[in-house]
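All the exercises in this workshop are built on plain-text protein records. A record pairs a protein's sequence with a compact description of its fold. Read left to right, the backbone structure tokens trace the chain's path through space. Once this layout is familiar, the rest of the handout is easier to follow. Here is such a record, shown just as it appears in the course material:
>
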Amino acid sequence: MKLQLPSKINKINQPSIGLDIGFNSIKVVEIISREKGFEIVRFGLTEIPAEIAQEKKRAPALGALIRRMFSENNIKGKKVYISVSGHNVVIRTAVLPKMPLDELKDAIKWNAREEVLFDLEKADIAYHIVKETEIDGSIFYEVLTVFVREDVIPFMVDIVRQAGLQPLGVTVVPMALWDYDLAVNTVKPHQVTSYIDMGSERTRVYFVSESQLLFSREIPNGGKNITASLVGDYEIENRDTVTVDEVRAETIKKTFGLPAEDAAGKTEEGIPLTVIRERILPVVTKQVEEFNRSIEYFKNKYKTDKVHRLIISGGGVGLKGMYQLLDQSLDMEIDRCNTLFQAKTGSLELTKEQAKMIGPSLTAAAGLAVGQCSKIDLLPERFKFSVKKLLIKLAPFAFIPFLLAGMASYSMQLREEIKVDEKKLEENKALLASLQNKLGEMQGPKKEIDGLENKIQNLKREKRSFPGSSSAPVDFWEILEEIAMATGSNVSLSQLHYTDASFGKEDDEEEGLAPQLNRLMIRLQGNIFGEDLGAQVSLRNFLEDLRKSPAFKEIHIIKTEPVKDGRFTSPGLTFELNLIPHERNTA
């Protein structure tokens, strides 16, 4: 299928690069516009090692990873389009009275003040006017808006710059998928399209109709869940038990996918493919059930009887048998995104199996390169390149020629001064010899001073041994930053309390047992707003992000309960957690 040339790409033979930085992998696609469309000339995909993903300050490591990926795939371009996603990104539609564009942004923030929980004054905001509509004789704008918490985009830009690249624009994943779909397909009027992007840790579902992004949902289930289902022990006929670790499970998943119900083969270890199917089937069946629930919820909310098209993308789509399962389970037209099949690939040397496995993962990156953030661009002005900024940066260097001329004329004067300085140097040498003699006479007092310094150090060590004199055993700034990073847009924290918590029995000493050591504990209380299912998913994401944080050793749920009626205007959950931080070594 030949790709349609988007209106924004109008320079023939000009490259464009989309860089998709995910939670577990990084994808890059470089396209070049041609007279009749465009082609993918280079691409790359690399997994993010767990040790990098768990680092607090991981931008330099991720930048180095991207730099190496560009080098290995011979991608020379330095200007890229990127995306942001996650629970600190809020996408919503609004209907606002028609007004001057310089007033629209403030009106958008006012309209969203009750739905967006982070600080809108500091957030990065972008909008796209979908169309004008008339309501009761007045003209209104239908506006697609995106809000991103203030620290997200600077973090992504830092990664890109650490890789030696320049960001040209920032958009959100559904916009990239949407742009790619419009480039390869003709969408009929009034059709409802659902995009399902199946990632490693999470699957995102979006619904689009009439150039509007109407609804989105995030499902905490992805390719890693399928891999995890294959890890464990297997009883092999006439052989000992076979143990499959995570690395081997990933290979089995990519090789066999979801085997057919009557599959007769075996893995290298001798595991029947029917057993592989039994392990994977509950996970992918749950995914399909979540897709159906999302579709039914959308139809009920927007009073429509049908979702006409389902576009699936992401690494999970490349799983063998996944498309057949979706086709059998969902009553609608399903189209797989595979950039390596749907686009020209020029001189790229790929087998059909390689393209089938890799292609779906590149959809978002290809959409970034195709759309070039034309609808939604969140890149703040301070990060954008301009000739004026370049001139200001280079201004100090404009005086170099004049400086060199001045230095040449000044050098003759310096030679004369050097002769004077040489004479003074000889005098100073004589003075130094005299001072060295006096230094020998001062060795006695110096030894006394050294003895006093040793006594001071001993007194300081004794002081540190007294109760209450040691420094805090944890890095509170790190803890607060990690909690802030994990806090989603619909999460509100009401109390954070720090204490030394004993985890032994209170009557241990009475029974003659040695009391257990105290541990530092942070009691965290708050609320998560949303309908029942949405609030539970947000709580699960919140806990998952905290558990991944390098700042905490243990996370304990003390209680969760529905928000009491009348306390807030929105439904939700009240939660209480105990966080056990990693203690730093104060020895």
Observations:
- The radius of gyration is 31 Å.
- Residues 476-502+517-581 form a domain with the Alpha-Beta Plaits fold (CATH 3.30.70).
